[in-house]
Amino acid sequence: MDEDQMGLYPLNMAQASVALVGDNAIFGFVSPVRGGRYRFSIERTHGYSSDPDPNKSLRDKEVTFTTVTADWRRYFSPTKNLTIGLRTLHYGRYGLTREESSSDGFGMLRPLFLGYETFIRGYAYESFSANECSPPGSSDSGGTCMAFNRLQGQQLAVANLEFRIPLVGVEQYGLINFQFVPIELVAFADAGLAWDSDNPPVLEFSRSGYERVPVFSTGLSARANILGFLILEAYYAYPWQRPQKGWHWGFNIAPGW
Questions:
Q1: How far apart are alpha carbons 180 and 168 in whole angstroms?
Q2: Domain covering 3-253 assigned CATH 2.40.160 in the classification
Q3: What is the DSSP letter of 198?
Q4: How big is the chain by its Cα radius of gyration, in Å?
Q5: Distance between CA atoms of 252 and 182, rounded to whole angstroms?
Q6: Residue 77: which residues within 8 A CB-CB, separation 6 or more?
Q7: Cβ–Cβ under 8 Å, residues 84 and 61
Q8: Model pTM?
Q9: Burial letters for 120-134: b for 16+ Cβ neighbours within 10 Å, e otherwise?
Q10: What DSSP designation does 224 have?
Q11: How far apart are CA 201 and CA 62, in angstroms?
Q12: Exposed e or buried b for every residue in 214-237, given b needs 16+ CB within 10 A?
């Protein structure tokens, strides 16, 4: 089946943005240890679908929206071998001109996904299984997977707290002096919320139900610096809004935020 039969057509887009950025963070071996970073930006996107349907006007094929980013991070070091990291992040698309279900409007843009490990651990896409979702026709969900669906939206909010200890490092920074494979131990608490105009946020703590409630996870992780350029993270997380999943392992390739 080709794209025309599926109703999918190229989307030509142009973007312009302005940002205020600051960074005085001091990095350790796998993540920042002191200072802070921030980024506040506004991006305007304008585009058109290449749908050849003669019954649609140019306005019908138009896609216009604004992306807002607000990212603030701060790192405190009360002792030499302890860093407390805080992050708050908002990323959202506003003013979308088409319905999500349309094939030529912003339905062609994939919704934002909250479950990436760089946002919140314990909700990775590949960690979901069928037993967390009700089958089609179920009186509980109508065949939807709310545990997964609540992670998608056009607006995201994220908050993170980490306690970082350099387990393996150098004599000046690390509990164990072994500079060849620096390792950082982390205790973390992650929180996030995804929503859009059709699914407004509900600010309450709930472990079930179908509203767009905040999701939380807590756990432990270890980050290792491999050969000076590859940062690997293994974590053991408890996702509070996935009661059927419980504690589980996950892996990530990214430096600490």
A1: 9
A2: yes
A3: T
A4: 21
A5: 16
A6: 33, 34, 83, 84
A7: no
A8: 0.86
A9: bbbbbeebbeeeebb
A10: E
A11: 27
A12: bbbbbbebbbbbeeeeebebebeb
SS3 149: helix
Between strands 176-177 and 183-195, the pairing is unpaired
- DSSP letters spanning 74-135: EEEEEETTEEEEEEEEEEEEE---S-TT-SSSGGGSPPEETTSTTT-TT--GGG--GGGSPP
Residue written as token pair 């056009």: 154
Q: For residue 168, count other CB atoms closer than 10 A to its CB.
A: 20
> What residue segments make up the domains of the chain, in order of their start?
3-253
CA dist 187 and 26 (Å) reads 20
pLDDT at 207 over 50: yes
Which tens digit of pLDDT belongs to each residue from 72-122? 999 999 999 999 999 999 999 998 865 544 444 446 678 999 999 999 999
Residue 257 identity: W
Q: Is 119 exposed, middle or buried (0-12, 13-18, 19+ CB in 10 A)?
A: buried
Residue 120 near residue 114 (C-beta atoms within 8 A): yes
Where is 36: in which H helix or E strand? Answer: strand 32-49
* Predicted pLDDT of residue 5: 46
